[in-house]
Amino acid sequence: MAERAGYTVTMFLVDVSPSMGKTREVEMSLPNGKTQTVEMTNLEWSLQFVKLKIQEMASFTFWYALTRFLKRVTDLQWTKDRPVWRDFIRHRSCMILGSFLALLETENIVHSKDGGYDHVYEYIPIAQPTAATLAKLSGLEPSTDVGDPIDALIVGIETQDKYLGKKKTWTRKMVLLTDGENPIEVEDWEETAKKMNLLDVRLSIIGVDFDDDEYPFHEEDKSGVKSANETFFHTFVDKLESGIVGNCALALEEISRPEVKSTKSALMGTVLRLGDVEDRPEEAVEILVKASKCTAVARPKSFKKFAVREKKDDEDIIMKDEDENPKDVYAQLAMRTEYFVDHNADKDEEDDEEPALPEAEDQSKRTVIDKEQLVRGYKYGSSYAPCPDGNFPRLETKKGIDICGFFLAKHFRRELSMGEVQYIWADPSSPVQQVALSSVVEAMYEKGAMAIARWVSKDGMDPKMGVLAPTVFENVDCFLWVQMPFADDVRKYTFASLDKLINKKGEPVTKHPYIPTEKQLEAMENFVDAMDLMQAGEEDEEGNREVWYDTRYSYNPAIHRTKQALFHGAVVSDLRRQPLPPPHPELLKYFEPPKRVLKRARHAIEDVKVAFKVKEVPRRVVRARKDGHFAAQDDDNMLLLDKVAPSRNKPSRIPQSQSQTQIISPPKSQKAPLAKKGNDSDSETESEGEYSQHLLLDLKRARLDEDTEKGNEGESMLPTPLHSPSRDISGREPGMIIGSVHPLEDFKRNIASGDLVTKAVEDLGTVIKTIALKPFSESRVEEMLECMQELRRVALEEDEIDAWNAFLRDLKRECVKDEESGSSDFWRRVTELGRNISLIGQLEAAKLGGDSDVSEAQATAFMD
Length: 864
What we know:
Layout: E1 8-15, E2 23-29, E3 35-41, H1 42-75, H2 84-87, E4 91-97, H3 109-114, E5 120-127, H4 131-138, H5 149-164, E6 171-178, H6 189-198, E7 201-207, H7 224-238, E8 243-247, H8 248-255, E9 268-274, E10 285-293, E11 306-308, E12 330-332, E13 339-342, H9 349-352, H10 359-364, E14 366-369, E15 377-380, E16 383-386, E17 400-408, E18 418-426, H11 431-447, E19 449-456, E20 464-472, E21 477-483, E22 501-502, E23 508-509, H12 518-530, H13 557-571, H14 595-600, H15 602-612, H16 688-695, H17 697-711, H18 743-753, H19 757-772, H20 781-797, H21 801-817, H22 823-831, H23 842-847, H24 856-862
Parallel strand pairs: 1-4, 1-6, 6-7, 7-8, 9-17
Antiparallel strand pairs: 2-3, 4-5, 9-10, 10-18, 11-12, 13-14, 15-16, 17-19, 18-21, 19-20, 20-21, 22-23
Helix pairs in contact: 1-8, 1-13, 5-6, 12-15, 18-19, 18-20, 19-20, 19-21, 20-21, 21-22
């Protein structure tokens, strides 16, 4: 339940007895996942909870209280006996046990009136906390005297009661921080508990190293005094209507947990109209309603910009650090706007290419204009349409929500909803309006209908179109309003069909590399089913799996991480010694899919990889050019089919800034043949001939870049080319000596050197398989067959028989595995060459002194 913002007094009772000065080692988590040990006292450790709690309440309360105050001032008259501002600010105080540094005497209202209650000092009176409050808390140190927590509770009760007086609706809270190592006077503690119940005081006792089964934690070698005090605290809390005892470590962990503040939205009055109220009032309905926010965009706290403040000559005070060195003082930057007329803007375009004027001379060409001399206007082409009054006349609109019509809820397009959702309630003070609105809501709810409505926030404002959805709660009926787009707001994008292709004859194509097969569809369907999150959560009491993702526990990382960093910086004095800890696990809960689902989908993922032939794309190495430029790196997550060919109507051009180059045609074996007539497998969007030309696009660009380098060799500066290849111009992948552009030439050159025969045979086989298995590779079939013949000859002569036989078996398996792809046509062309391209048998190998595990019969049957 949301608390009444601005109506809470929270008092912190902090034990600063000598035992709180005991040092401890605290494990601090670092952002990189490692931990470091920091030594601090129990008092410093427990005060972190106080500071974080104060910041959490102050950051939320102040702005909400300010909003409520501004609204309240318009409704109430200011009176001397009722200061409205004070009523709307949440207050809190801090009290300590024992004297402060043994120099402060006992000071509290009970001691001043009746005496007793020694060593209880009101350190910070009840007031709105500021940055000075946190700084003062950091100055607390363990005392030499011992105080009694029960005395502090009694003083706190009396202080709150005196301050609040007759304000019965205020919430009273107390937080006691202690280590429980000192004796406690427990006489008449029942009367104290009754008093707290009478005033409805909520008590939280945060104990240093207290036993906690929930955490879990149990301190070893605990003193008898502390054990007795812990038992007493639990007994005392059991007598309270609202109280809790917890461990300090658990409290520090829980306070960093993301928490959503539940607030009440202000009700804004308006009118709901159905029908023409002005012309046909007897046929119209007008209902007084209130609107409040159902959802609102939450944003992280914005950062301010600061700069080192310049020291003025007349300043005598200089800030210094601990080493007496001058300390930089930062001041927040303020934005300032100046208007001026730039006379250089009227010059011709030729003048714009001239070198820029010096800053002093450029400033002289500007004339500063006062804001009062400006006239608002709209840019219209190359000119402007002035609007002297600041804006054109608005439409004459009337405040309210007008229902324009109804439609079935099943036709509502949820993806078109815009902005935030609002509640539309009936006027809470008018039962007649509540019955009227409830009747409309119930009727629409039974019919399964929604309403199209126009909302005008106030007279003369631009209208908004939206829908009203009937909502029936347990005790109240209302509407939910969400804004919908106008026709101007809708963006429509059309895409080509993913499962239908049309050839040039206008006939549908049923088999194509870009049309998914039944096997692929089944694999993807199984993968989607395996990644279902509806039953991936924890088990309930009946053993059924719950939904894994719950919006109630999904927090905005930007908001809560920023708040954590802000609070940590205010609490910790040395960020190097105590850096910002990692985010709370609850904040990262939905960053990764559940392990249970990943394990369940493991086999489905493998099936998808096999069905779609998913392969890892190796990272391309950046090659330094002669002119000093570096080729751009491709994205690591680049799709396999992300290269889009240029449009036929818009061919790629070479910038005029580059030197003229000659386009060299590829070899005959690589030229793209014209599209064959009557080939039904050609799609309308991209024919074989066109795609084959696109396959040579990298080659042409590489030749252009190569010629550009040669033509400009010796020049000191070269322009950056339009397209810098992200790999070798020969098409060699990293670690390979055979490229995909001229594989046969690369192979012959490496064989002639005689050093890397085995590597050359292996790489050429890889290149052949890569090109042959690509879609639309018909233009390079003859070239690949020529490469295979040369590869077989070299393998036979250089005793690489096993490598050739392994390559040919793998090629056949990949080609015939999917009969619907174009690779099966390539294997059919291979078989047409007959025995001369088949496996190398024993007799053939023996003629050249080699050896083979393939018989002549097996080699002949392999090509069948």
